[in-house]
């Protein structure tokens, strides 16, 4: 039984000696959302679904452990390798330990690995099969290097704050698109026996005040509190995590921020209540690095493992069990969940030694463990190609048609000047809008990856010029370059930088805009290429008569140049579409343009009220009738497509508004994923070249946003040919979260059904009555 003090600790979410959090709770704005309700005890993993065998093995393993060995497995240790973190070995039981490492877009740090396209680039591809293929080959690299768990994929931040510093690591500002792509990523990575660690759970939507700090007066400032109501957290922020758990995700990383004024790594509602109970999560919860802020309270709230170590736990765990502030079963469950993941992925039978290819430094003597492969190259390139989005193609400026002279401008065109052999240095401490060290293939911080090489746009352009007998002129350094007036095309390369640790300063910058404008003023065929780690607005030159083409290049990874040149010359037909909305003006994003800052009586307890609810990105633009510059889901092709023949049919006439009760499996109540409706449409390639189209399905749920993405299919259609695309709508797709019943509620009434090219171009409309 818990002592009265232990119960008080649970209710307050604090540990002895950490009373500052109590002040945090007392000063919360109860007029807004107040506190998350307490949910105890932490549910034990059951081995539900296909976890049964793994749990049997894990429990047998835990039964052999001493108390000290159990405690040792709850926190990371320092090891002489390049892993981001390690779980120590237990040689007497044949357990070699666990190596975990960054990041969701490829390995960061070692040699002989590839730089893969970043999350935002995968999001722009809208290609679930390609997302899976990318994950498979990336997983092979992690496995070859002896990395048991990848610290990714990322679905938090979702992208609430337009200037968010880490939005580029995730897939999209839409939970449905993010959910599909993270699901495929989890399946692909774990098919290679590599564990995934979904991050960051939850409400981690800004970098500003993400960690506690101390000001110049020595005053302690807590992390920002993401104050989210129950409906919003389910319908937006939990949604992609649920898809990932359904796909078999093995670990979830809790975030730095507070959620409704309780630190995310000790929030019993989100961990015990939502993740482990509602979603039936069978894996373990690990902290982001140094994100533990309480002792026994965090364990009772559902935290299982601390990285990189724990000053709160250690022998305090066994002491807490002795004095009644923690149940012995909680410690056993923590280790069972950890070990079940190891067995679930078969890492006990055939997996390299942890960290075998992760040297502490690539500059010290180490064995060459080569994880790159010839087989991965087609996927590397295709993933890089499909994340490019063609926004403007005036007078069919693209594809290029045997240009005699190509002029290249801008600081983003060439190979990075600073290159160490494994990583390019990306700053993490400034709010710079630019990366001026060469072409930007990745964002900065822990999500950065290590390229085997970097094929810059300029190198790829010169290769093509050699083949075609073209000439190339360039100027990478001048803001007011002199232009050769016989240039057939002027290519301008700029970027928009973002990094972990700091939110972006602006959605555009005057330096880059001046380069574009100068070239366009002097070149009648100016094509702008932007490598962007997040939304980049183009209002100052988008309507310039000489800006004939705009390509959003996102973050393609090491094949950035080769992929772009294939698109520029028509060897590849652009097929990417925006995974976010580009506004005409930054102010159009409203209250979620910038991160929340400490103010007023909450100067030392920063608050971020998610008062917009579910209305972010295109949902907000639709609600407020704001015309975007480029809509969510927008992207051009070198061909055209027509839509016709919309069909809507029910596959199950449900008589209940709530899902039938069922045993909770990973992902939650399996009845939520029953197909209730099928929608189909005919898409025809009405142009002269073959191309891929992304047909998109949006649903207007009664009493909800105007429309929400609820289906997409990317299909290759030959010129002049047609194909039928089919979408399935599940119970969850058609429901809203009922805060009273704490369940998904199917609405009664008329649903609007839309199918088309993007969220603002939906030529097929129909209705569905439930």
Describe this structure in words.
With 770 residues, the protein is α/β, with parallel strands linked by helices. The protein has three domains: 4-206 and 221-344, Alpha-Beta Barrel (TIM Barrel), CATH 3.20.20; 374-592, Rossmann fold (3-Layer(aba) Sandwich); 639-769, Immunoglobulin-like (Sandwich). It is 24% helix and 19% strand. The strands form seven sheets. A six-stranded mixed β-sheet has the order 1-2-3-4-8-11. A six-stranded mixed β-sheet has the order 12-17-16-15-13-14, with helices on both faces. α3 (52-62) packs across α13, α6 packs across α7 and α15 (457-468) crosses α17 (560-568). The chain is globular and about 85 Å long. It starts with a helix and ends with a strand.
N- to C-terminal distance: 49 Å
Q: Would you tell me the overall average pLDDT?
A: 93
CATH fold-level topology of the largest domain: TIM Barrel
What spatial order of strands do you see in the largest sheet? 1-2-3-4-8-11
The CATH superfamily of the largest domain is known as: Glycoside hydrolase, family 3, N-terminal domain
Count every beta strand, where a strand is a DSSP E run of 2 or more residues. Answer: 27
Sum up the overall morphology in one term: globular
From the coordinates shown, what is the CATH architecture of the largest domain? Alpha-Beta Barrel
- How many helical elements? 18
The low-confidence parts are 1-33
């Amino acid at each position: 039984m818990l002592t009265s003090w232990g119960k008080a600790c649970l209710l307050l979410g604090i540990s002895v000696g950490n009373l500052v959090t109590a002040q945090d709770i007392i000063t919360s704005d109860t007029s807004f959302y107040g506190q998350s309700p307490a949910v105890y005890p932490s549910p034990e993993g059951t081995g539900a679904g296909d976890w049964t065998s793994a749990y049997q093995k894990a429990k047998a393993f835990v039964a052999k452990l001493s108390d000290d060995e159990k405690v040792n497995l709850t926190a990371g240790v320092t090891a002489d390798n390049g892993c981001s973190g390690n779980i120590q070995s237990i040689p007497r039981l044949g357990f070699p330990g666990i190596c975990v490492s960054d990041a969701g877009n490829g390995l960061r740090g070692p040699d002989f690995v590839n730089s893969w396209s970043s999350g935002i680039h995968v999001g722009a591809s809208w290609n679930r099969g390609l997302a899976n293929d990318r994950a498979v080959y990336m997983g092979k690299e992690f496995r070859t290097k002896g990395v048991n768990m990848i610290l990714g994929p990322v679905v938090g931040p979702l992208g609430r704050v337009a200037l968010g510093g880490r939005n580029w690591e995730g897939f999209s500002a839409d939970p449905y698109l993010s959910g599909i792509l993270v699901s495929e990523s989890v399946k692909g990575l774990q098919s290679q026996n590599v564990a995934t660690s979904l991050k960051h759970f939850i409400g981690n939507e800004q970098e500003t005040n993400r960690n506690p700090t101390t000001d110049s007066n020595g005053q302690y400032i807590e992390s920002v509190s993401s104050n989210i109501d129950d409906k919003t957290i389910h319908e937006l922020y939990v949604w992609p995590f649920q898809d990932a758990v359904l796909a078999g995700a093995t670990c979830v990383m809790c975030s730095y921020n507070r959620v409704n004024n309780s630190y995310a790594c000790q929030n019993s509602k989100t961990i015990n209540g939502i993740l482990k109970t509602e979603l039936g999560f069978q894996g373990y919860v690990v902290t982001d690095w140094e994100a533990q802020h309480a002792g026994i309270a965090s364990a009772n709230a559902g935290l299982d493992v601390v990285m990189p170590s724990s000053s709160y736990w250690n022998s305090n765990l066994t002491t807490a069990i002795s004095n009644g502030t923690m149940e012995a079963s909680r410690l056993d469950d923590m280790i069972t969940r950890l070990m079940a993941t190891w067995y679930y992925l078969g890492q006990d039978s055939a997996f390299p030694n942890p960290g075998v290819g992760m040297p502490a430094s690539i500059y010290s003597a180490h064995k060459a463990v080569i994880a790159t492969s010839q087989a991965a190259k087609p996927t590397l390139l295709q993933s890089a190609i499909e994340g490019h989005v063609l926004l403007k193609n005036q007078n069919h400026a693209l594809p290029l048609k045997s240009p005699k002279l190509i002029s290249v401008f801008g600081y983003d065109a060439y190979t990075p000047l600073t290159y160490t052999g494994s990583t390019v240095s990306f700053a993490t401490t400034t709010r710079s809008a630019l990366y001026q060290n060469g072409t930007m293939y990745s964002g900065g911080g822990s999500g950065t990856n290590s390229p085997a090489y970097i094929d810059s746009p300029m190198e790829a352009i010169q290769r093509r010029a050699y083949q075609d007998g073209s000439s190339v002129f360039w100027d990478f350094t001048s803001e007011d370059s002199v232009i050769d007036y016989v240039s057939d095309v002027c290519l301008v390369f700029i970027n928009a930088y973002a990094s972990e640790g700091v939110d972006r300063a602006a959605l555009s910058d005057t330096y880059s805009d001046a380069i574009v404008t100068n070239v366009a003023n002097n070149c009648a065929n100016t094509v702008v290429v932007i490598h962007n780690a997040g939304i980049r607005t183009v209002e100052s030159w988008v309507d310039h008569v000489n800006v004939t083409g705009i390509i959003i290049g996102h973050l393609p990874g090491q094949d950035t140049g080769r992929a772009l040149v294939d698109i520029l010359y028509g060897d590849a037909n652009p097929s990417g579409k925006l995974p976010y909305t580009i506004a005409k003006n930054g102010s159009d994003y409203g209250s979620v343009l910038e991160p929340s800052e400490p103010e007023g009586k909450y100067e030392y307890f920063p608050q971020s009220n998610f008062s917009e609810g579910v209305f972010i990105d295109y949902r907000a633009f639709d609600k407020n009738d704001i015309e975007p510059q480029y809509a969510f889901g927008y992207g051009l092709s070198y061909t055209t497509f027509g839509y016709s023949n919309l069909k809507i049919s029910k596959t199950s006439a449900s008589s209940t508004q709530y899902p039938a009760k069922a045993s909770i499996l990973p992902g939650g109540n399996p009845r939520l994923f029953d197909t209730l409706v099928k929608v189909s449409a005919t898409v025809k390639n009405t142009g002269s070249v073959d191309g891929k189209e992304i047909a998109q399905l949006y649903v207007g749920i009664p009493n909800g946003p105007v429309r929400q993405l609820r289906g997409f299919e990317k299909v290759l259609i030959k010129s002049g040919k047609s194909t039928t695309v089919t979408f399935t709508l599940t119970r969850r797709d058609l429901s809203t979260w009922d805060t009273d019943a704490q369940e998904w509620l199917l609405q009664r009434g008329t649903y609007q059904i839309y199918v088309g090219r993007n969220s603002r171009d939906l030529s097929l409309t129909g209705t569905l009555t439930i």
